[in-house]
Amino acid sequence: MIRIEDLHKSFDGVQVLKGVSCEIHTGEILALIGGSGHGKSVILKHVAGLLKPDRGHILIDEVDVYSLGSSDLEQLRGRFGFLFQGGALFSSLTVYDNVAFPLREKTKLSEQQIRDRVLSVLDQVGLKGAEDKYTAQISGGMIKRTALARSLVRKPEIMFFDEPTTGLDPVIAHTILDLIQSIHKSLGFTGIIVSHELSRVFQIVQRVAMLYDGVIRMIGTPEEILSSKDPVVQQFISGSTQGPIRLY
Amino acid sequence: MGRMGLFLAKTFYYTATPPLKVSWVLKQIWFIGFQSTLVIFMTGAFTGMVLGLQGFYTLNRFGSAALLGPMVALSLIRELGPVLSALMVTGRAGSAMTAEIGIMRTSEQIDAIELMGLNPYRYLVVPKFVAGIIALPLLTAIFDVVGILGGFLVGGKLLGLGEGTYFGEMANYLDMTDVAVGIYKSLSFGVVVTWVCCYKGFHSGFGAEGVSKATTQAVVLSSVLVLFWDYVMTSAFF
């Protein structure tokens, strides 16, 4: 279980998180929704141990992430998979080598075992035949799928998806979300997904948390969020320009 | 300065403790060292030629033209070889190091490495650091040899100083201490250039502007530090 307790964070004097608290149960996917610039990705990076909070705690299986030394943190991160907004692929490596990279560097698998595993994951994300292409030679959707394959290749226990469908056409976006759903069924990871693709995301997650003005405004099942009477939640879900939400 | 010092300390620590990514080091030696040879060759040749020309006319006024060889060799081996090689490497490879690491920072590739449970220092900094320490003395040696030959081309072939005088006097006035000073300097410049350039890339700001700013700062700071450190070492060795 992941527990976020009273998380505070400022950047250059601007307070982005003002006491975020929530829990993500083992095996569930939580959707983190909210306006752009409200700190959703900042929360993800805190949970993954990439940013240090000004105040508050992140507990993963009751272990405080920020109490860990560098080697324990490295070990903990071995349980993570992270799909970055831009993919964060290594441009000097091919699709195959990008996906094989964590296996080569973090496991003692033979090159044949790595090959079998990489090809199987690439097949799973529909990238069979693109192994030898470099990132400059593939489309945005293929970059996202390669990044997804790389984050899944070590069968992570905890997955973070930072806007996995941003910049993709609706078909590719739905393909990526379908993939996340099917892989979640087979691997059973605990996940946090940040996305603006609300209608489809609500079908694949167990709970939704809405971030507004630096705190969690509401947390509940997709049905509870959709039927919420909170004017902020209602305005965000409907995408209306009229309402209490301030534009940044 | 504190953050830079901490960065250097971490780099030394990860360099001294295994595992060392040998293939990554070799790739960087290729990039920093081999791919800089042409620019080092050209710079060395013209520096030696200018020294030969200036030195010949200056020494000739005092009737000491025979000492052109030692003058060119001492200037190159103790000072100009290490310093100009370091400045050339800063401009050619150092700026590229900063830009590469900076782009990896802004495109979250460094975060991705960390989230794989890997240490980005071992992959991005240590290979460049080790390669810089290995490549700079070798490039300096090339610079020195080419420069001495360039000095002879002008002083000997064009202005008529004998081959025996040029090289013979050089052997009389030069000793291993001079060569050692050049080596120590180039080793330390290898540290300075890779340290500053990697640090600036690692801590670059966001976007194209952040990376370009970091690259400029890396080249300027690294060049100034090379010249400052050259003065410190020269004072220490005299």
Please characterize this protein's 3D structure.
The complex is a heterodimer of chains A (248) and B (238). With 248 residues, chain A is an alpha/beta fold. Chain A is 38% helix and 24% strand. The mean pLDDT of chain A is 93. The mean pLDDT of chain B is 96. Chain B is an all-alpha fold and 238 residues long. The chains are: A alpha/beta (248), B mainly alpha (238). Chain A binds chain B through residues 45, 48-50, 70, 74-78, 80-82, 84-86, 88-90, 101-102, 105-106, and chain B through 107-109, 111-112, 114-119.
Oligomer description: heterodimer
* Helix-strand topology string of chain A: EEEHEEHEHHHEHEHEEHH
What's the total number of strands of chain B?
Answer: 0
Helix content of chain A: 25-40%
How do the strands and helices of this protein lay out in sequence?
The complex is a heterodimer of chains A (248) and B (238).
Chain A: E1 2-11, E2 14-24, E3 29-33, H1 40-47, E4 55-60, E5 63-64, H2 70-77, E6 80-83, H3 95-106, H4 111-124, H5 140-152, E7 158-162, H6 170-187, E8 190-194, H7 198-204, E9 207-212, E10 215-220, H8 222-226, H9 231-238
Parallel strand pairs in A: 3-8, 3-9, 6-7, 7-8
Antiparallel strand pairs in A: 1-2, 1-4, 4-5, 9-10
Helix pairs in contact in A: 3-4, 3-5, 4-5
Chain B: H1 2-16, H2 22-33, H3 37-61, H4 68-106, H5 109-115, H6 120-158, H7 163-173, H8 176-202, H9 207-237
Helix pairs in contact in B: 1-6, 2-6, 3-4, 3-6, 4-6, 4-7, 4-8, 4-9, 6-8, 8-9
Summarize the structure.
With 248 residues, chain A is of the alpha/beta class. Helix content of chain A is 38%, strand content 24%. In chain A, strand 4 and strand 5 form a beta hairpin.
Key phrases:
heterodimer, A: alpha/beta, six-stranded mixed sheet, B: 238 residues, mainly alpha, 9 helices, 0% strand
